[in-house]
Amino acid sequence: MDEENNETSKNRKSPMDIVLKKADAKDLEDLPKIKGPWMENVKNLDDVINFYETIGFQATELGKAIKIWREIEELRSKGNEIRVFLAYTSNMVSSGLREIIAYLVKNKKVDVIVTTAGGIEEDYIKCLKPFLLGDWKVDNVYLRKKGINRIGNIFVPNDRYVEFEKHMMKFLEKLDKVTPSQFCRELGKFMEKKIGKKEREKSILYWAYKNNIPIFCPALTDGSIGDMIYFYQLMGGKIEVDIAPDIVKLNDLAVYAEKAACIVLGGSLPKHAVINATLMREGAEYAIYITTAVEWDGSLSGAPPEEGMSWGKIKGKSKHAEVHGDATIIFPLLVYAAMR
């Protein structure tokens, strides 16, 4: 037994040899070196952003996203047709990202929008009265008694919806049978007479109408708009929303695009509506996802661009980036950097 132990000891590597294993990294020497900005040399935000791609972790993904969008912008400025599809969930409009999205629409940086009902109604409501900055830790039962709705740390008093209802009843009277995209366009047009110039300047709906940028909302009734349609019909009004023509219109916008780019904030229905449309053209050439969702539960919200490749929604040779994090932090930096 002692002889066997001695033989094993002779063949066993020393802890130093194990920990300090010789590296064979010759094939890796051409890879970019990890480095961040030297703060003594930083004069402005650009000096920091220029290092994102080599900082590592999610900063590198954001750096890749910036590079991709800059390429899209450069090619479009030279006359190349790259149709940009922007998908976002309603909480993006609840937040201050609403103004950034409106800027993109006003300046024709995106060509097609897909969002949820909240992304429509909250844009309009903010033209009437602002949302307020509250807190995450509050007495929610007390808020309910006071008629104050909470979206995270954003407060929306119920008088906003009361005012919205007044506008919607007048708006619905003008409609008969519409698609959701026609509904959104007509609501943007409605703003010209019902909303002041200063208030509508920051509206996504208004600029989409002015610039003829279609807004698709497959789940139009899943929110306050649905409530208003319900109230309107209880009072004897009639309106029909036909979703079928919109799926043809959205898919055709992808099919007949020379190239397609998907920029997705969050996940859920807007994300899938866009990438399912690009499936009809064998995938998008560009994709930028910003998400807090995880992949391991099989959700569409957490599905990375690579999974989309298996379905043909994202091209195998696409340029893509997925940034994991809060869009309210990431998207302002992305737009700032990409538009410079």
Short summary:
It is built from 18 helices and 11 strands. The chain has helices spanning 2-11, 15-19, 45-49, 52-55, 57-77, 90-94, 97-106, 117-128, 140-146, 159-172, 180-194, 197-200, 204-210, 224-234, 244-255, 268-279, 305-311, 327-338; strands at 82-88, 112-115, 132-133, 148-151, 154-157, 177-178, 215-216, 240-241, 259-265, 284-291, 314-324. Helix 17 links the parallel strand 10 and strand 11.
| Span between termini | 74 Å
Task: Give the DSSP E fraction (strand runs of 2 or more residues).
Answer: 15-25%
Structural class: alpha/beta
Unreliable spans are none
Strand order of the largest sheet: 7-2-1-9-10-11
Reported CATH architecture: 3-Layer(aba) Sandwich
- SSE string, helices as H and strands as E: HHHHHEHHEHEHEEHEHHHEHEHEHEHEH
Count of domain modules: 1
CATH class: Alpha Beta
As a percent range, the share of helical residues equals: 40-55%
Radius of gyration: 25 Å
Shape: globular
Mean pLDDT: 95
The CATH H-level homologous superfamily: Deoxyhypusine synthase
Question: Which fold name fills CATH's third level, the topology?
Answer: Deoxyhypusine Synthase
